[in-house]
Each structure stands twice: as structure tokens, then as C-alpha cells.
Amino acid sequence: MPILIDVDKCNGCGLCSKKCPYGAVELQNGKAHVLDTCVDCGICVESCKQEAINQEAITRPVPDFSEYSGVWVVAEQYEGRLLGVAKELLTLGRGLADQLGQELCAVLLGNQVAHLAEELAAFGPTRIYLAEHPQLENYTTGAYTKALSDLIKAHKPNVLLIGATSQGRDLAPRLSARMNLGLTADCTGLDIDLETGLLHQTRPAFGGNIMATIISPYSRPQMATVRPGVFAANPAESGNRCEVVGCSVTLQPDDILTTILGLVKKDEHQANLEDAKIIVAGGRGLGSRQGMALVSELAEVLGGEVSGTRVAVENGWVPPERQIGQTGRSVRPELYIGCGISGALQHRVGILGSKYIVCINKDERAPLFQVADWGIIGDVHEVLPRLIKALKNREAGN
Amino acid sequence: MKILVLIKQVPDTAEVKLDAQTGNLIREGVDSIINPDDRHAIEAALQIKNSFGAHTSVLSMGPPQSVDAITEALAMGVDEGILLTDRIFAGADTWATSWILARAVKQAGPFDLVICGKQAIDGDTAHVGPQVAEFQGIPQLTYVEEIESVEDGRVTVRRAVDQGQQRVSASLPCLLTVVKEINQPRHARIDLLVKACSPKAPIKVWNAADLKVKAHQTGLAGSYTQVIKTFPPQIKRQGELFKADPQSAVELLLNRLTSHMAL
Hints:
Chain A has helices at about 15-20, 45, 85-100, 115-120, 140-155, 165-180, 255, 290-300, 310-315, 345-350, 380-395; strands spanning about 5, 25-30, 30-35, 55, 70-75, 75-80, 80, 105-110, 125-130, 160-165, 185, 190, 200-205, 210-215, 220-225, 245, 260-265, 280, 305-310, 335-340, 355-360, 375. By secondary structure, chain A is α/β, with parallel strands linked by helices.
């Protein structure tokens, strides 16, 4: 019991009993006495004027993690094709592994996916853990959590990076609860603190209004998810030496928990914002669906994708899967053009990775101008038709 | 059928501003609301109740004023509420939050369905649903867009995945996290609100002692992660602005885009 009463000092005033929110301090024979319902909150310690109550300080021990080494990336594949986020995370992980002086490894889960090892090797891992099983063909929370936790137990990685896809955002928190691991979601910055060797995980919070840097000092692996498109992938490099380690997977029927009944696939052309080279986005300033049509036309002329802000989605001008920003997504096109968008912080954070940012808005105080490479201060309804026409003329001239 | 909805009271992040001098959040004058996705979770529970009959509860952890979120849920038609509040819960990360919630779910349960919103707008992590499911040892179905059926001890849903929409089923008890596409939440009813505000409203308040939890197991002390620094986002670029008439501005812009090979 970490709350200790010094009966010699206790004068039986009962203040501690009054202050205790749990009714866990009683007076017995004129002295304070702590009951089993005590939660060790320490309020009584502060309340005692006689300094008769002390609390054993519990310092939280940091377990010995010396066996944990290596930066792991869960290399997500779908139907035997590697996702872009796997390449982005390997590129990111390569830098972290170099900072730590540890190995970079990819973890490939699936069924008959060994052919992806060569493609993975081109992004810098020196080892690939290959876990194949018929039950890993399609992602289920149960099977993937079991397989990945078994691998972690066996090989003890120091850092684990998972793409914040619909799969990764389902898997990572389940794994965090199963293995009692700290987890940071949707990181936009990852770095090794050279003094402590800890992973510094930076992410936006409060809808992007503030950035927080987070550490996981009490568990390994240090686990973080990263949204697709937040980091760039290096170009593939051929000739990298990489060892493929086949891992046995043991799954019981009880491990699976869910039954997949079918999938209605999205139109391939739909909402491919993460891979788009050019994105034209519209916001409140467009005023109407007709205004949004100008954005669509500009996107078409440029061969780009259409996107929108929360307001544009709420007005039904663009479908929700095309929203950038809070609970939407991050993009990193070569060129982003924001039309009639004032630039709420979450939207600005979502487009930060763009190479060039253009802002068109009649209100020159629009915050989006602060992050723009070039801006036109003018009414979108006047500017966009002229821009579309000029681009069409250029095309015809070429 | 017993259904539990996990809800969170959050500051309306659309109103949160930063103090330009200190970089701190200005939370004064910012409304507290039921997290938007959680309203859809409440609605999903109420629709099952209306169709098949069910007893519905809400559970929330937060400071004492979070009772307002529970009151509102009761005014929407939920049968009872439980508030977990204790100063030693403060500072909990998602793991520690889920651990406490799971303990309370166990104490208040058993439930056939636990329903949560996809994520909360203050943290946007989407961790708590899956973590609570794992601590309960029950299946999770995340990003649910439609509940097709709850019958014969199974739940069948359609859930949003990156590749499209997946149909999937799981045995009860099961935890669902729902997205906003699932339904249109109903408004609170005045008559129910009056009842929910009365001292006799069916709202329990549990603290750490009620859950038999010690200080070192919860809050910041029980968390695996620690926030070591917060700062305002740094997102300034050197911008060039064209204020001329629209035609000249368009030409200047095209000139810059061409010279930077951006087209």
C-alpha cells in the first residue's frame, strides 16, 4: 500500500478523510487509516497539515530493451500488388535505420506473395520476413494480428511502421492492445533522438491546429502509422542485396473472428488522389455546383484529379472520398491548385507535401496564400475561365 | 439484445484557435460537443433498438462536465449512461484510455454489440475501438457504412475499405466502429431532455475506486506514450502574389508554372 500514515504525527483531525474522493481514509481509534478502496491518488498526502501522510514514490521502470533491434515496415500488398505506402515507409525507414545503426526489414504478409520480394528489395531493406498462409490472402484483423504479433515476439524489432490505410488503421491499434505497445497514429514526422535513441513521432492533433511530438519509452517495438502520400518514396534501386526469411504462420480457426462475404470494388478511376500528379481543389468560394464545374474543367484540361474541402463535400459538390484535410487525406502532387479555398489548417496540412501550390481567391487574407508558391488575388469565376482558355490555347498551339 | 455505445465529449475543433504568441491552444469559449462520428454510433444503436428491440447504454470517460454528452445521448433515446470520471484518468493515451474503457465495459456488461464512432476529432487516431475490442477479446468491424443484419448471434455489415466496400460478418458479441455515411443522427427530443436532466436520470458515475484501478495503472502513469512537445504547424512558403487584372494574372501564373516545369 503506497500510502503510509505516520501514526505518531497524525493528530486525528480527519481532514484527509474529508478530502478523499473515494471514502478510502477512515479514522480508527483517532488515527487515519487507509482502506482497500484507496487508488493511491495522493490527495490525502497534500491535504495533511501534520505531514503525517507519505506516499512511496513509484518510479516507473523502463524495461531492458537491449534485445530489440531493427526498423520494420509492414509492406502492405493487395491482390499481389505492393502499395505505394510500402515504398514510402521503406524509404523513410531506411533513414531511421541508418540513424540507429540498425537493420531495415520489410514484413510481407499474404498468400503466394514471394514474388514481391524483389520489388521490395529495391527500396532498401536488407531483410524481408515473408509470412505466407492461405488465411492471409485477404486481410482479416484476427489473422494479421496473430501473424504479426508472432513475428514480433520471435524477432523483437525496435521500430514498427505501418501504413495508415484502412488495413493499417484496423491492424495497428489491435496489435497495440494485444502486445501492450505504445502507438502513434498518422505521423507526419519521424526521427531518431540521437541522445536517447528513441523514435520521435510527430503528428497533428486538434484537427491540425497543433503538432505534438510523442515518444514510446516503455514498450518495444515503438509503433507508428503513417498516411499514404505523406512521405515520398525513393526511386527503385536495382541490385540491392536482401535476405528473404520465410516464416511459418500458425493460425487457429479461433484467431480469425470475422468472415469476409464479398467486396464491391471502387471504380479504378475514382478518387486516386494519392497518386495524382496534379490536383485541382475547390472550396467555399466557388459558391455552387456550377462553380465546382469550373474546377472539374480545369482538372480535365490539366489531366489532374478533382478534390475539395470539407465545405465542398458537405455541399455535395464533390464526393467525400475526394476530401483533403481533417479525416480526409494527405496528398503530394507535383502541382496543387486551390480555387476559392480560404485554407483551414487541416486542409493546409493535407497539401503540404505538394511540390508547387497555387492559390486563387478574391480574399487576399485567405490563409492558403501563406503556403502558396504563386497566388492570384481575384474572383475564381473570372480567373478560372481565363485560365482554362489559356491552357486550351497553349495545347492547341503546341 | 444489449448495446453499448462509447462516446466522447470533444472541443469543436473547427473553433479551436492558436495563440499566436505562445503557440498554445485557446480552448476558452470553444463549445464541447458529442464527437460527430459518435452521434452516428448512437443513431445506429437506436435504429437497432427501434427495429428489433434492445437495451441501449452509453459510456463516456472524461471530466465531470462530460455528463452533458451523456445527457444529450439520453435525450436522443438511449436508455442509460455511465460516466467514468476521475482526476487520475487524466492524461491517458489511447492504450490507457481503452484499457479503462474495457474494464468499465466488462463491469457494466455483458453486451452483444459495442458501437463507437470511427475516430474523435480532437485526436483523429481511430485507436480506441480496436483496442477496446482486443481487450474484450471480441471481433471488431471498423469503418461500418451499413449494418445489414443482426440476427442468429451474428452481425453482418458493409464496411468502407480503401479498395471499395466490403461485406463481412462476425459472431456476437462484436465491436463496430461506424463512419458518418451510415445514417443521419436524430435530434434530441425535448421531453426526453427534460427527463435526462432530472436528478433521477439513469446516469451512473464511476471513479477509479469503482473500477478497482490504482493511480499508477491509469492516466499518464499508465500510458505507453508521452507527449514531449507541442508546437504550431510550420507551413510557410515564400509566395508570389498576382493582383493584376484576371487576364494578366493568368498569364503571369502560366509563365511561372512553365518556367518551373510544373505543367
